[in-house]
């Protein structure tokens, strides 16, 4: 069952120091903006240490490699929570996502940070009682490797019970778009509209990540998002 919410205004007042992995990415940049607009202090990580498109005094960009647990330990230390918008580069095997997941979990443990909100994939969400989105006939073949890697990364997280994790997946389709503040969530299920279309803008997905970080409604959960 999907939950509907309209969240244009956040009344959250407990500001956090957040380490944002993948801050230079398409979802990451929007997440950095959403979090800083809410008053959180954000340290944004990319491999180069450069993050374009985020204009906020409470934002600092730093360099780090998310496949390296030592880097994650150093970077995460002193933060209240870690948010990931990590994704493999086009020239890498999608399975590097599982390396990132292992390094991030290890690094958080060593840094004594116990909250992780991870941007996942929609492929492992249910579209029927026994069917995942990735198993459907129409699932694009070119998306299969990254969708499989995202499911493998989820399986690693699902074995983890000493961190308060949330695995938040976009809709089947996510693109740059409008920040409407209205979206729905469903635990382990794909969120689709009445026509069966599953979509969310990157701006609204960033709201969903920030809401989950603040409200902890889906700890130890694979959460689908969409309209
Ligand atoms: N429908 C769906 O299920 C769906 C659709 C879209 C995206 N997603 C998922 O959402 C996530 C983010 O997507 P996106 O489109 O925003 O990705 P993106 O634009 O490619 O951004 C990926 C980010 O990860 C960073 N990164 C990659 N390797 C790294 C490493 N070793 N160390 C540190 N940072 C690293 C990149 O930073 P640098 O390259 O600057 O270092 C960049 O900031 C991905 O996991 C993707 O699979 C799911």
Automatic annotation (TrEMBL):
Record-level Gene Ontology MF annotations: oxidoreductase activity, acting on the CH-NH group of donors, NAD or NADP as acceptor
InterPro entries in UniProt: NAD(P)-bd_dom, NAD(P)-bd_dom_sf, Polyketide_Oxido-like
SUPFAM superfamilies linked to this entry: NAD(P)-binding Rossmann-fold domains
Coiled coil residues, start to end: none
Chain ranges of the NAD(P)-binding domain: 22-215
Name of the molecule in the record: NAD(P)-binding domain-containing protein
């Amino acid at each position: 069952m999907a939950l509907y919410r309209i969240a244009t205004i956040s009344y959250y007042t407990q500001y956090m120091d957040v380490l944002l992995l993948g801050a230079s990415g398409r979802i990451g940049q929007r997440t950095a903006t959403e979090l800083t607009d809410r008053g959180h202090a954000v340290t944004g990580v990319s491999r180069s240490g450069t993050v374009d498109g985020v204009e906020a005094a409470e934002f600092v960009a730093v360099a780090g490699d998310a496949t390296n647990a030592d880097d994650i330990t150093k970077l995460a230390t002193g933060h209240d929570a870690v948010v990931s918008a990590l994704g493999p580069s086009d020239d890498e095997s999608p399975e590097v996502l599982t390396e990132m997941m292992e390094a991030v979990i290890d690094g958080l443990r060593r840094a004594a940070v116990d909250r992780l909100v991870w941007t996942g994939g929609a492929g492992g969400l249910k579209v029927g009682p026994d069917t995942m989105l990735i198993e459907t006939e129409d699932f694009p073949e070119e998306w299969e490797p990254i969708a499989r890697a995202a499911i493998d990364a989820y399986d690693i997280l699902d074995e983890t019970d000493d961190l308060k994790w949330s695995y938040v997946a976009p809709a089947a389709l996510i693109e740059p778009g409008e920040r409407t503040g209205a979206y729905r969530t469903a635990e382990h299920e794909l969120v689709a509209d009445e026509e069966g279309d599953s979509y969310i803008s990157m701006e609204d997905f960033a709201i969903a990540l920030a809401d989950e970080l603040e409200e902890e409604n889906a700890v130890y959960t694979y959460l689908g998002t969409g309209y």
